[in-house]
Amino acid sequence: MSATRVRLRVSPGARRAGVVGRYGDAWKVRVSAPAESGRANDAVVQLLADTLALAPASVRLVSGLRGRDKIVELTGIAPSNVERRLATASGEEAA
């Protein structure tokens, strides 16, 4: 199965972790881990794995290791399912 790439805008150090909603052509997510020593990146991977019902090994950070704007690569899930699950998690209607 081919991989799906998703753009993210990450807010580390949040009170509650979760998918917030759309942020331009990206998805905005919040994680409670601070942006130090890769802890926020690890939290993003775990949040997406949990939200999308994937193994953490199926979520790979491919861009944005040190910034808020990131690109993740997801394997084992169709692009339409990614959009639907993220929209549901954020409380938005799926397109």
What does this structure look like?
The chain is of the alpha+beta class. The chain has helices at residues 39-52, 79-90, and strands spanning 4-11, 18-23, 26-30, 59-63, 69-74. It has a single domain (4-90), classed as Conserved Hypothetical Protein Mth637, Chain: A, CATH 3.30.1200.10. Helix content is 27%, strand content 32%. The radius of gyration is 12 Å and the shape is globular. A 5-stranded mixed beta sheet has the order 2-3-1-5-4, covered by helices on one side. The chain has 2 helices and 5 strands; from the N terminus they run βββαββα.
CATH class: Alpha Beta
Q: How much strand content do the residues show?
A: 25-35%
Task: Give a short account of the largest sheet.
Answer: 5 strands, mixed
- Return the structural class: alpha+beta
CATH architecture type:
2-Layer Sandwich
- List the helices and strands in order: EEEHEEH
Low-confidence stretches: none
Q: Outline, from the CA principal axes? A: globular
The radius of gyration over CA amounts to: 12 Å
Q: What's the helical proportion of residues? A: 25-40%
How many beta-strand elements?
5
How much is the average pLDDT? 94
CATH homologous superfamily grouping: YggU-like
According to CATH, the fold-level topology is Conserved Hypothetical Protein Mth637, Chain: A
Work out the helix count.
2
Whole-number total of structural domains: 1
Major sheet: arrangement of strands? 2-3-1-5-4
Our measurement of the CA-to-CA distance between the termini, rounded to an integer number of angstroms, reads 23 Å
